[in-house]
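Q: Give me the 3D complex with iron/sulfur cluster.
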Amino acid sequence: MQRPVPPLQGGCGVILRLILGDQLNINHSWFHEPAKNVEYVLMEVREEATYARHHIQKIAAFFGAMQSFAEDLRSRGFAVRYLTLDDPESRGSFGATVKSLLDSGRYDGFEYQAPDEYRVREALAETARRVKVRTQVVESEHFLVEPAFFQKVFAGHKRYTMELFYREVRRRYGFLMEDGEPIGGRWNFDAENRKKLPASAAPPPPLTFARDVTSIVDRVRRAKIPSIGSIAPTAFGWAITRGDALQVLDYFCRELLPHFGSYQDAMHTDHRFLFHSRLSFALNVKLISPREVIEAAIEAWRGSDGAISIEQIEGFVRQIAGWREFMRGIYWARMPEYRTLNFLEAARPLPHYFWDGDTRMNCVAHAVKQSLEESYAHHIQRLMVTGNFAILAGIDPTEVDAWYLGIYIDALEWVELPNTRGMSQFADGGIVGTKPYTSSAQYINKMSNYCSGCFYNFKDKFGERGCPFNTLYWDFLMRHQEKLEKNPRIGMGYRQLDKMAPADRTAIKQKAAEILDQIEEL
Ligand SMILES: Cc1cc2nc3c(=O)[nH]c(=O)nc-3n(C[C@H](O)[C@H](O)[C@H](O)COP(=O)(O)OP(=O)(O)OC[C@H]3O[C@@H](n4cnc5c(N)ncnc54)[C@H](O)[C@@H]3O)c2cc1C
Ligand code: SF4
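A: Here is the predicted complex, encoded as structure tokens.
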């Protein structure tokens, strides 16, 4: 039952507070108790739905989560306006809509939480400069550490390293620490976390929901918002409320965490989600906080009586306390120039199969089709299949970024960009990672069952059916020899290349040129 909200009188100290679609944090201090003179606004705006070609599930998840959040706030007694895409007061962008609301004279102040994305932060700062009312920006109260912590950790260091940062975050919060030392005697159990899924393993199905988002999808279609991918609007499965997210977290701790670390790099045609948490959307829109996710997982590990090993829990904590916060630190340290970096001068357009999955490369076909159906692929599919292919083939990182930003339900620029342009495409020349994440078919075959069902032969690099990953891998090393050979972490590749017969190197170059020439037909 919704409690009635008394109408607010304008022009008598009423403050307008903007809640962005990724700021659905009910534990934020704004929401401790309803204030008489505050009105909250959430808005569906065209610009946000079109800045990339988004997956329809991503748009539905954002709007669905925003609507549910607005209802939750109303039921707690807060005054909330919710502007839908077709509401005449929704003026196409945050800036224009806020400006027009504030120009109405109903409000005497405007407040917003610091946006996580550079684009939105700039737009709202510009709006704040143009409006006549008092404006205040507050923290979003979500992340474990702020950009200043990141700067402090790396003060005096020549380069950023995730490991150093991760240890400092663990020390600060005492995650998996005892007497100042990491539990288990080591900070990192990554080496134990690279197992292929055994044929006998049957990962539990993902916990899904069956929400009806038909009215949202209809609204998006009516507004002619272009989108990609498919959706079942009457049975939408993603967690879009805090209650859903807490259930997913609980399910993860009970059913998936015991094997999370071991198989976090595995890929399988029959198991799309394996032991992954599927929490990234809920985390990124702040339905749930990184701290509570980590603490719940650590509690499950402590209470598991050894059933959850240190490798599993450490692997999980590292993703959130390490990678997620590290990526955010890099983003704010290096924007806006970061989004223009193209160290390898890659310029080829993205082939059609990134949009339809229609390719004979089984690994790429699986990763893309799954992404179109689920708006999800796990980390290694993103990094070592689609990302690997894109870097080896020299695809323009701006096109690669746009694809990742659109297709994944969890894609917000602050986390997508350092992962894609940095970690996956090495377009930053080594700011995020110390070397490009590239591999031949050998790695994909080791970690998945993709190669056994493929048109291409994972053992071959020259023949008619030689795997394109093999040919392009060696060609990539030759193409970028000048830029990469001094990198100690790729030394082994160059040493192997040195031992290769000149005729083989020539054959690889020729075959790679053919592949790249016919890239749309692979
Ligand atoms: C090219 C590329 C693009 C990516 N784009 C995004 C993106 O737009 N948004 C996004 O949230 N993640 C992105 N990631 C990171 C990672 O792939 C996803 O966070 C993860 O697949 C989400 O699924 P999950 O919740 O089941 O994760 P799990 O495997 O269960 O991991 C738990 C959590 O750890 C965090 N995490 C794990 N790895 C990373 C990472 N590298 N960076 C940041 N957080 C991490 C996520 O919050 C995730 O929910 C990208 C990775 C790559 C290689
Ligand atoms: S053989 Fe090559 S293209 Fe085919 S699945 Fe394996 S790595 Fe992918």
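A quick observation: The pocket of iron/sulfur cluster (ligand 2) is lined by residues 361-363, 441, 444-445, 450-451, 454, 456, 458, 467, 469 (CB under 6 Å).
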